[in-house]
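Review form for a predicted model. The reviewer records the input and the model, then writes brief findings.
Reviewer: anonymous (R2)
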Amino acid sequence: MADCTTPSATHRGGLKRTLSGLGDWMARSRRLITGVQWAVIVIYAVLIIVPTLLPLPTNVDHIWSHLTIFAQFVFWGIWWPGVILSMILFGRLWCGVLCPEGALSEQASAWSLGRAVPRWITWKGWPFVGFLGTTVYGQMISVYQYPAAVLVILGGSTAAAIAVALIWGRNKRVWCRHLCPVNGVFALVSKLAPVHYRVDRDAWDRWRKPADGRSSVVNCAPLVPLRTLDGNAQCHMCGRCSGFRDAIALDHRPFSQEIVHVAGREAKPWETALILVGLLGVAAGAFRWTGSSLFIDLKMSFAELLLSLGADRLLDMVMPWWILTNYPENNDVMSVLDGVTLLAFIGAEALLAGLVFAGGIALATRIAGGWSSVCFHHLTQGLIPISAIGVILGLSMTTVMLLRTNGLDLGFVDPLRALLLVGATLWSAWLSARIVALHATSPSRRLLATGMMAILCVLAAVNWGTLFWSL
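Model under review:
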């Protein structure tokens, strides 16, 4: 009989075998992965500790001549934009293989007291609160500019992760699963990845313990229930479960799979809040405020109010550097007035973004077929691509600034930014259309609801675009 296998089917089968083999190799290579993790830990420790022991850089210092500027470039110019981009491409591979905080947490948990995880730790709002808190606090102490601020935020988070590991769980990543400030963002963005660990539940249920009595056990450090694993949101892509019970394998999938077909199974209000208020509001405001004329106008209004109240002494009040930026030797001091204005500016942007986008999505939900909280939260997931690309571009502002300061010509940056924003807008609009199709009750409602979501996608892109180009 002639072979009827098509070239595309052969290609897909070859890709499936390659990915499955890669997952199995990762499962067999735990010592190598652990070695890589310790190498990253050493680099991480050097970059957050050594710069605090050096004098602050001057205007004549460069990336290649001062470790502090080099560390700034690595962390904020390459590290964090690259980590979020890797989530889009490979899921949470960073978390499972490279993250120093996660690795230290798991290593420390080997000596844990092993106490049961209390309910307050498992509160689902921590990813939202953690992201907002670290983002705003980072702006207050100028984390992008000063090594002491980096040590407080990144080093403090790592210390907290180790402390949690020493108390709760055993050989687990309790901090990563519940308390990590960027866990929520990573969970959202990793839903876009075209690779995942697929679980064959029928094969799982058919599996029987080997006759020789050996037990097949796998330690899932981020506490994921493996049999019901159906996406990347909590999976750290570490590979140790590959081949478990002959039912788990690394596999490819469409970019839309998780957001369209998995994310809508239940309403997740905290994820919605993180997208609309956190990423489209707080993150955008944190990137925007330093170059905003509105920030200056708001500060002047507050100053006039204080003068009218006879509280002019508050105008020049300053705080320690670990509360508000205070580096007089660099002529960089944030007064209490500046701090209050910063909080008001970011808070106003977050509130405005939340109201506008939530209102638009609520209208799209109504149009699609009547109010449904599941539909509302599901439609919000369609904005993940434009939110993620916007954050990457916002973080890259530091990359571009440092490279230009060091004399590099980056004329391609603006066209690349525009291309990425257009691509992310189309991606979000396409995902939104796929989601609307699942909920709309008629073709006309589908068309109108899709149009409403497309408007919101464009509005999000314009919001990010104003970081780089004035309207």
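Findings: The longest strand covers residues 195-199.
Further findings: The CA atoms of residues 288 and 466 lie 9 Å apart.
Recommendation: see findings above.
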